[in-house]
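Q: I'm a student working through a structural biology exercise. My instructor gave each of us a protein and asked us to get a predicted structure, then write a short paragraph describing it. Mine is Hydroxypyruvate isomerase YgbM. I'm not confident about reading structure output yet, so if you can add a plain explanation after the tokens, that would really help. Here is the sequence I was given:
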Amino acid sequence: MTKFSANLGFLWTELSLPDAIRAARSAGFDAVECHWPYDTPTDDINAALAETGLSMLGLNARRGDTSAGENGLSALPDRITQARSFIDEAIQYASLTNTACVHVMAGFVSGSQAHKTFIENLQYACDQAASHNITILIEPLNSYDAPGYFLSTSEQAESIITEVDRTNIKLMFDCYHIQLMEGDLSNRLTRLLPIIGHIQFASVPDRGSPEHGEVCYRHIFDVLSKLGYKSALGAEYKPAGKTDQTLGWMSTLK
Ligand SMILES: O=C(O)[C@@H](O)C(=O)CO
Ligand SMILES: [Mg+2]
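A: Happy to help. First, here is the predicted structure for Hydroxypyruvate isomerase YgbM. I'll explain a few features afterward.
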């Protein structure tokens, strides 16, 4: 039976994070994950997790000045100090909430200096995270939604992971982004499984609930089940309306 994690960056966004955790439990999710939880005290998160019995699978380091369009700082050569302070903050928050993974975002930049900066910041993040048993994730984003984002394909992520050369760095394989950029999801999931730390999904191309669109998630989840993948899959889609009214897929895709 497939397990699902509710991505609270997109689902139940009208609720506070603790109440969204409770809503995810009531809806039958097996775990939760979020984007940027920093306005919520860790005690409130922990109370909701304890009450529901759910665990938090992942959170993101801050992205920088989002009003100026920033989307991560970790590959920006002139922002290393701030990028590392966001990494420290994310690891601290994850450690206090027993969160398994921290997603470190690269940002809008390109070139060899950016590549070097991203590698070194990721090595820093992995070394800080190791003693807390936290895994660092990197996620390729598609170039329709995030044009100019430094990391855009699973192939680039694979070579970065090799170069970072730490045991606690993995790929966040978001089927939505990877279908838009590269396709061939079944073969790619199979080949990349050893370096995958978390999987997310949404319909393609509209990033809605997963029962429609060009990807047959029934097939993808069967592939993962045959591969022995047991971790909860992250439902990271933008609900059309109230989240509770978009969950019909949960019973058919279980
Ligand atoms: O796919 C996404 O957008 C997310 O997983 C994320 O972490 C923020 O960009
Ligand atoms: Mg994602």
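A: Here are two points you could use in your paragraph. The chain has a mean pLDDT of 98. Residues 4-253 form a domain with the TIM Barrel fold (CATH 3.20.20.150). It's a good idea to check both against the output above yourself.
Q: Great, thank you!
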